[in-house]
């Protein structure tokens, strides 16, 4: 009975958490935009307008999206990102969150290329991770094995984790998608993809 209640509680949290986080983020953006622009616009037009906050928030989000899709906007975003990545603590948080968002929404263009399993931190123990890129530069030149970069996130907060350089031959690739892998990690292993995701591919695949 207690075990069933525990499972129901975890399942409920997994279902509600994305919704709650989404509502929270939208609410924060709405409050910030509404609190800043509403008094200015109402001062200009001389009266209060019902739904103005929602319209302003939507306009700001659309505006940022439009700016981000043109050449000049992309350059401005790149400059902003370079500035953020020079701040030690902010850099770690921003880059990791950006990778996760890319993994969820950009799919084929994701920074996380594949879901993999590695033996870490020692032989006989396995960790789920995300292949980010092949080892290049000095790291590859000064290691005997051909290595790849694997990001190993923590549970239940995948915005933190560590980078592990793993020999290519020691990587086991999974069939599950990056999104499924993230759900698996966030849920602590309780949300397993329905298909035969334990189908392991040849490590040379």
From TrEMBL:
Domain of life assignment: Bacteria
Keyword Ligase part of the UniProt annotation: no
Bilayer-crossing regions: 7-30, 50-72
Keywords: Membrane, Transmembrane, Transmembrane helix
Entries under InterPro entries matching the protein: COV1-like (IPR007462)
One Pfam family this sequence matches: DUF502
Protein name as it appears in the record: DUF502 domain-containing protein
Lineage start: Bacteria, Bacillati, Bacillota, Clostridia, Halanaerobiales
């Amino acid at each position: 009975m207690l075990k069933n209640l525990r499972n129901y509680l975890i399942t409920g949290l997994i279902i509600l958490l994305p919704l709650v986080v989404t509502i929270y983020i939208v609410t924060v953006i709405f409050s910030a935009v509404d609190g800043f622009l509403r008094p200015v616009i109402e001062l200009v037009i001389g009266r209060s307008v019902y739904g103005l906050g929602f319209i302003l928030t939507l306009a700001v989000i659309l505006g940022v999206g439009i700016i981000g899709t043109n050449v000049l906007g992309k350059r401005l975003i790149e400059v902003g990102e370079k500035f953020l990545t020079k701040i030690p603590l902010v850099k770690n948080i921003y880059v990791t969150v950006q990778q996760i968002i890319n993994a969820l929404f950009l799919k084929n263009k994701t920074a996380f290329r594949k879901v993999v399993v590695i033996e870490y931190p020692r032989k006989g123990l396995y960790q789920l991770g995300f292949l980010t890129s092949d080892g290049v530069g000095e790291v590859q030149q000064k290691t005997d094995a051909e290595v790849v970069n694997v990001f190993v996130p923590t549970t239940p907060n995948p915005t933190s984790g560590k980078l592990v350089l793993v020999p290519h031959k020691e990587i086991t690739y999974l069939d599950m998608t990056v999104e499924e892998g993230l759900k698996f990690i966030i849920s602590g292993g309780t949300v397993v993809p329905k298909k035969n995701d334990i189908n392991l591919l040849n490590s040379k695949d």
